[in-house]
Amino acid sequence: MSGFVISSTHSGAGKTTVTLALMQALKACDVPFSPYKAGPDYIDPMWHKAVTGKISYNLEPYMMPMSHIQKLLSRADGMPVIEGVGGLFCGGGESDTANLAIKLSLPVLFVVDVAGMAGSIAPLLAGFSGFHADVHIVGVIANRVGSTRHADMIKQAMEEHGLPPLLGWLENDEACQLPERHLGLHLPHEEDIPDFSTVLHLEDAFWEQLQNDDSDPFVEKNGQGGLLKNKQIAIARDDAFCFIYPANIEWIIEQDGDPVFFSPLAGECVPDGADALWLPGGYPELHAKKLTAQGLDSISLFIESNKPVLAECGGMMVLGEDLVSKEGERWPMASALPFEVTMQKKLASLGYRRTNAGSTNPLCGHEFHYSVREMREKLPTAFDVEQGDCGVRYRQLRASYCHWYFPSSPETAARLFGTEA
Questions:
Q1: What is the pTM of this model?
Q2: 216 within some domain
Q3: For 63-101, what is each residue's pLDDT tens digit?
Q4: Known catalytic residue at 29
Q5: Would you say 299 and 319 are in contact if contact means Cβ atoms under 8 Å apart?
Q6: Exactly one of 176, 313, 364, 402 is catalytic; which is it?
């Protein structure tokens, strides 16, 4: 195979667990590959990097032109191994994993949670493998298998009906389950990375499939550069501000910008000489006490200096007057903007976003949060979006719940950092 996409029947089937197990196995056998993640997720790529030591880039057709996706794939050291998003056909056409596999002409490794299942895998797999003629399910990785006998039953049921083969299986072992919270998995440095070698069983057919490579390599296409020339961009980066697409950092560098990182959690101030400030999303709600103790004065002062600031989701949350936990505990924040943010147990918003949607090249992004913002004073909106959070604007600050993907519209993104592109 020239690479493959890992997908499943639905979210929660064990796609990320199987992906990490396969990456460990490929790395152990010195098979050259590079990790990728379909969709806008931040945390799964962190786990990919923790296991492989390589940057895992997001691939999202809604947010990226195919030329940009091809550019990211051209950087692969060996074959691309792409973890899908949701179920194979979930997401609605442009954003589902099946669409990505079709556009890239890559086969699908299909993950099925077989706990409590044996012969019923046959009609299930027959439905998925025959649903779309252009989606090629090359084989199945069965998850949560109870025993070798159980695996044999699954394998036999598939063989009897001429279905794609069982290429491997993962034992049902609690020690290999990855802990989750409201925005997804825990961060990899918060947990021990499981050793999947004792619970992952790969058939000879899996390794044979890897030998088949009849596709053309992906070719990098260069884009526009120089939009941030001579601009130093200060970027908050730590456990409270950790939702950063690697391609966004690379885009800043490609545009001749100078990214400089600082940690508000460590009490660091916005670096001297910064021309613009980016506050990415993350988990400020998990570190509210420390953020309060360290103070956010330098961020407020930078905003008042009338320099460009982009604040995304968690980065926006710390700019209000208070951050209130689900339990009602209240933490004072930067008080740079007149609002209060309250965490809640239910999901507040989820979906893709586009600003300047009527233009030929809209800035694209994603929104996913459990908190709500309550304004205490009306401010102008920051973004013209068809749906989702329009955010707030104050001086040269634009703050909202949206996470933006800068390469989707370089000119628009450059303007967020004060460049008239």
A1: 0.91
A2: no
A3: 998 999 999 999 999 999 999 999 999 977 677 899 999
A4: no
A5: yes
A6: 313
